[in-house]
Amino acid sequence: MQSTGFRVGLSVALVALLAGGAFVVWDQNRAKCDQTRQVSVIADTGVEEYVTRLADEAESNSCFDFTVEAVEPSHTNERLNQRKTPQIWVAESQARIRQVRSTLGRSWSDIGPSLGTSPIVLAGNSLPDSPTWTKALSMPNLRVDPPAQSDVSNAAVIGALSEVSSGSLTHQKLIEGLTKRALMMNDSDGSPDLAAVATSPEPVVALTTEREYVKFVNENPDSPLQATVPASGTVNLDYRIADVSQSSDQGLASDAISALVDALQSENGQQIRDEEAIRGADSAPLPDNAGVRGVTVIDAPDRELADNVLRKWTALTKPIRTIVVQDVSGSMKRDAGGRTRAELLLEASLFGLKQFPKNTALGYWEFSINRGGDGKDYREVLPIRPLSEETDGRTQRDALKSAISETLGNLEGGTGLYDTALAAFRSVYGSYDPAYSNSVIIMTDGRNEDRDSISLANLVSELNIMKNPARRIPIIAVGISEDADAAALKKIAEATGGSSFIARDPKDIGAILLQAVSFRAEGA
After folding, report:
1. CA-CA distance, 501 to 340, in Å (whole number)?
2. Whole-prediction pTM value?
3. pLDDT digits (tens, 9 = 90+) for 201-246
4. I want to staple 43 with a disulfide (CB 3.0 to 4.6 A). Which of 51, 208, 234, 486 is the partner?
């Protein structure tokens, strides 16, 4: 017992001595600093733990204090558009950095070094034979996060795009396949939870990183989960650093990036990278035969083409969040081939409502002059809520069916278009959710008849002033019949980056409504 106590005491003393020595080294390094400089870092949610560990290592040998903040990819635009911006961003891939840079219109001229790589793999309890990326993306049993949550699906799209470049797939077939996959993702719960995949009674495949696969297997050594990549090769996440600082902080950011790179190249940094199951920038295999062996990295396709396809993919996979604003003025009673315009709009609206995926969030307004009271041409009937959300015992989808039927059966007054358009845009802007594709859909059969409303010129000016690259909110304007003011609707829509459509025959409303909803990909 005494011997054991002695050994324990000696171990504690050694730990304390070593810790004290480490502190002395750290303290001596800090003593050389006239001041420590504060550095703000944002990291994509999939890599924040790794970045935090590297930042801690860099602090011990530099004059920097790093603050690492995890930011979901869907919120990056908003975060980088705030007044107090970070100096450094570590993204899962350089393609994401280019995409955000383009959206925000920034001039970040240099995408910095890679902090490591992790190839995209297919992990499952029953893996397909010789999969291609195109086939993988079309598999009904595939589980993958949308690009708003992770860059993994973007990397798979790049893999599929390389099959277009090789001639084994046409560009049109690729877009069709991506559209189908986006619809599946929006209408089902497809989280690539490896624990759920491993224990699923049905064959399920998750699209994930080698890093996540290795960490799961290490924690669950008896799991039946296996991983593979297509024979044509795979794509890496390359964990890139970007200097996103304002001009006054660019020197600070550059020095801080160098400190992070130096930390990575140290013995401790290499150990951190290995423990995080991340490969080096050269994509050399992980030590101890971990992960997937014999991985071929696909040559990157044309950058401009890749960025264009990824923008469309991101737009397609984002769930829809919109206010549907419908004209309930007296002119909607007019005959349109045996039925009224309102009756045709009702039929088209109920048809369209069935087509929206279940992760859609919809609200509903009606409008005609003074519909919401004196001087207010619009009335909120239902606030924006997910279609599956229940209120008072019924879902939002069912509540919308009833509301649309009721309001289109109560038609009166003139058309108060301009005030309504501005109010709807402001409402979505004020409640903007970056995880969604936010928009306003306005349907009307007339032209503005409210003499006391804002003018068209002032409306367009207001919309242009509020337009924000980090909060893209297109107005989709649908004109019903020849009586609709096509010129005004076009100006209103274009001021927000939206589009206008005219249903010259009210029977075409249903098809145009679906076209309007799909516009979010065309405008990306």
Report:
1. 20
2. 0.77
3. 988 999 999 999 999 999 999 999 999 998 888 999 999 999 999 8
4. 51
